[in-house]
Protein 1
Amino acid sequence: MSKGRIFSGMQPSGKFHLGNYLGALENWVRLQHDYECIFSIVDLHALTSKYEDTRELPENIHNMALDWLSAGLDPEKNIVFVQSQVKEHAELHLLLSMMTPLSWLERVPTYKDKLQQLGSQGKDINTYGFLGYPVLMTADIILYKADTVPVGEDQIPHLELAREIVRRFNHLYSPVFPEPQAKLSKAPLLPGIDGRKMSKSYGNEIPYAASPDELRARVRLMVTDPQRIKKTDAGNPDVCTVHKFHKIFNLNQIDEISQSCRQAGIGCVDCKKRLAEQMVINLADIHVRRSEYEANPSRVKEILAYGNERARKMAAATMEEVRQAMNL
Ligand code: ADP
């Protein structure tokens, strides 16, 4: 029996990496068994911070669909679709924007942070659309009357805002929408090959779509215990990035590898080789599924078209209620 209805989305910004997989997608794959899930490639959200050059968008959307399908998201069981193809997202966003006080948006902590961060990278996001990001996110969720939203810590303020907007709408017009609840995911933060958080903006990522050989090459470049110069030096796994990966991808062998590192038994080169081989094994199913879908791009298109159609039906039904409630 379903525990509730989930909506979640990801921006097709390219360069999907293993951190994104472990931080979000892997969780979705688990959630699909217990919830009724609606997953959206949120291309309109991608425009809120990258609107000047949209040429890569079609390819990024296709690749994101490949990422999801290869992870094992079931496009029959879940609704998997592209946000811009369901125009009701834009319509509800507009209507919600009429009743959302500016001050609610300006006080979202991520707003000023991102503005500063992206501004310093030379991006001009002093735009109406960027400020309205959480309104669009609210529209995404409530269009499907989702009651549960899997989020990381940083998204909690956005969800709180979504609930405030829902309360305002229900109070002003009629109680159309349930208040969505956050489901906090406690995914591990994956480091990049340089030891900092894996992020596409640091260039330290391991691409999720990396082939076995690319995986091996990225693992070879990982930083280890900087104090360990020679193989005969005892290592400290607690400060080693390779070790952090072993903990995630090779938990069965972790004790033996730790001990061996501390006693200078295993060298970093071998330790990396063992990690890489284990990662290749763990990600093998994903690679197989990915190459099947890669060989059949029209199948991926069909899957998205089918998801768009299913999403449209639900969204249209909600918008009927909204228009009625607002006397439109
Ligand atoms: P990036 O830092 O590469 O730009 P995003 O900010 O686009 O990544 O993150 C998209 C999703 O992936 C978010 O849900 C975020 O929590 C998750 N995520 C990103 N990087 C990591 C990481 N290194 N470890 C775990 N989860 C991550």
Protein 2
Amino acid sequence: MASKLSIVILAAGKGKRMRSSLPKVLHPLAGKPMLAHVVNLAKKLNPDKLCIVIGHGGECVKDTIHDPDLNWVVQAPQLGTGHALLQAQPCLGQEGMTLVLYGDVPLISLETLIRLIEVASDKNYGILTAVLENPDGYGRIIRDSETNTIKGIVEQKDATEPQKTINEINTGIMVIPNAYLHEWLPRLDNNNAQQEYYLTDIVKMAVDQDVSVVSSESVHEWEILGVNSRQQLAQLERIYQKDYANKLLDEGVMLYDPSRIDVRGELICGTDVEIDVNCVFDGIVTLGDRVKIEANCILKNVTVSDGTIIHPFSHIEDANIGANCKIGPYSRIRPETQLVDNVHIGNFVEIKKSRIAAGSKVNHLSYIGDTTIGQNVNIGAGTITCNYDGANKHQTIIEDNVFVGSDTQLVAPVKISFGSTIGAGSTITKDTPENELTLSRSKQVSINGWKRPSKT
Ligand code: UD1
Ligand code: MG
């Protein structure tokens, strides 16, 4: 591979067809800006220099990607791909090679780029090409009819009718020896149909100087697809998700329907994990062995340990779930929650910033916030921790072996001590003694002779 590698990502184009105020390269693919996918990949090649050419919405792009390792180059006005690379030229050393990537071609793989760099092998000009059934809109690769070597690239708008029938296209991704790049870029002109400085015109310069122009193709056909419209972005999203789902299946994860899962980050699974339809995984999600995620769940930055089952329609974010827990259906687990092993959280229960120790259960219609719950605690239906006084949040502590009766309010700060039982329908405002029954409600009375009103 090239001894010194620089990478330039072209990302100055406007993306008019997105019909959006957001710069095109910031539109998300799998939950992350398209450009972030390209930057992450570029970094895997350990380049000496990584430059991003920005133009339209440049400040917004820079602020969003926000990465100290990047060299930002502003191209204004945008006069074509050759002009874009020319702006980055001062960043590039004299030695080694420069790899050109596009900010709006986000599915390109590491394997494909490594192959291209190897083909160029430090001295040749390498172009990633593709053979497309419908090459419409792309620059066509012109090859010598006898030697089959590349002689030029002609843009669609400049192509003759016979040239338009050529199916081999320029993906735009290329690797150029720096020594030539410094010589060729300043010589580009804009004498063409679009009056742009075409980067592709350097092919002719290479041919004139007997620099070999070599090509390679991508590992998967879809890697080279670019995004110009929301339709294309949606198509790429499906391709990305299908590919991710196939990788999960290959790793042994059981997806009930691989076309109905969305991973917007990283999903790390143990053995015999099962995932039912319509689940969304955001950020980094780790599932232990035999974890089962039932239909329509959303998990964001969550770790789930072995044997836990998440029933349908549960929403879990920034939480740590222990082993053999049962969550849902319809549970909401909010950030900074930790559930230890064998915890049960049932329907219409919201847990926020709380720790629940092993074997405890909150099974129905409850809110538990800013709370520490010990082991083997049972929280009855409709229990609310009143953690907020309108200005500040307060803690509730519930020690081991507590039983809280249904429809109870625990007004924080408050401690429910070891072994306490709270009678149903209580409003608890003071700490409770260990192992005793505490309740706060008026005595039940029956009014003798009372009559229900009737219509007059
Ligand atoms: C370019 C290629 C074409 C290739 C196609 C692949 C040239 C002259 N043509 O055409 O051969 O088949 O890509 O998709 O190179 N950009 C800038 N500054 C500019 C212009 C573009 O940064 O002044 C960036 C865009 O943001 C984009 C990339 O360069 O990431 C490609 O630009 P685009 O206008 O889409 O080029 P095409 O005309 O499609
Ligand atoms: Mg384009």
Protein 3
Amino acid sequence: MSGPDQSPATTRELSGLVCLVTGASSGIGRATALELGRRGAEVALLARSKDKLDSAAAAVQEFGRKVLAIPADVSRSQDVKNAVDQVAAHFGKIDVLVNNAGTTRDNLLLRMSEEEWDEVVNTNLKSAYLLSKAVARIFLRQKGGRIINITSVVGLIGNPGQANYAASKGGLIALTFTLAKELSSRGILVNAVAPGFIETPMTVSLPEAARAAALGTIPLARFGKPEEIAQVVAFLAGPGASYINGTVIRVDGGLGI
Ligand code: NAD
């Protein structure tokens, strides 16, 4: 079977929407920014590395979309506030927030430093709190919006050596359920996507033995592609997902079934 369709979009189902994607310089975030643009959305891209961010923004622009690239650290509240203000000022609104930025600092519990714990939890979980809070204020005024959190199957099933990462991703799932309950009466839908093993810079450095062990747990017998996550995020952002709320969609090739 061939991979996901990368041909020019024939539908503009996200036309008129403004989407903010964190961690958009690489991997799943980059693919998501591109897919949202391909489907007609205007896209604000946020990440730390300006060069990689500019390259992703230029790729989205090729679809003829308005883009804004903002270098920022999502774990810092002032960065997040400035970034959200910039997006709102530039586009006049925000319709969709994709909390995708994430990192790993793997270690077994007894060797895990407090710094490794804090960096991962702050980047993966505190960031979603900061961004959701800043964007929800705008959504409330607009009487609608979507928040899509990129969690991980590891947040559902755990993984040795990833206490910090698994806890952050499990926390993101609990945050998704809670915000769905808090905000949906105001037209704000909150969902999560839980990828399994996806071919990105985050997994490229996995040792061969770990890669083979991971493959053995996936019924589809391959890692996923960033574009296969992007398709699901774009669906959740669009009109077809108007009754989906407080859900975690696993996109993992059947891992763990
Ligand atoms: P990646 O390393 O390719 O991309 C991570 C992105 O997050 C980059 O754009 C990076 O700049 C950004 N980022 C990291 N720390 C940041 C910070 N403090 N401030 C701003 N931006 C920051 O990794 P990826 O695989 O594309 O991961 C994207 C998301 O998907 C992450 O949340 C990750 O946990 C999740 N995920 C990935 C996999 C996988 O197998 N690759 C599986 C499950 C979940």
Protein 4
Amino acid sequence: MSNANPQCLFCKILAGDIPADIVYESDSAIAFRDINPQAPTHVLIIPRKHIATINDIGVDDQELIGSLYSAAREIAATDGHADNGYRVVMNCNAAAGQTVFHIHLHLLGGRALDWPPG
Ligand code: 5GP
Ligand code: ZN
């Protein structure tokens, strides 16, 4: 999409300027494996549109955000986690540990996950 941020790591991955292990692509989103995986499956699902944080999601973005969850469901099924279970989480800002300011769902699966998270 046309609002790419030249400073943004994930916009650079979207543009193909930084390589990534892409596992899913649609008109609205892509997904790729996390460079520092915290579970056997650790995939990041991002919208093609640059949105910095959850706080910046607009009312017109609801279908787009829904498409991220549809991607999560498909990838979890492909990786064999649909029945055992998996986690989908999005961090917002510093206290939650957000480090890349282009929204992304973390899809974690393939091991037992503690609750509550740290
Ligand atoms: P956050 O902490 O913002 O919720 O998650 C950012 C995630 O991006 C982290 O899990 C981190 O390992 C991942 N990450 C950071 N840089 C890269 C990269 O260059 N490539 C990939 N595939 N993942 C990255
Ligand atoms: Zn971006």
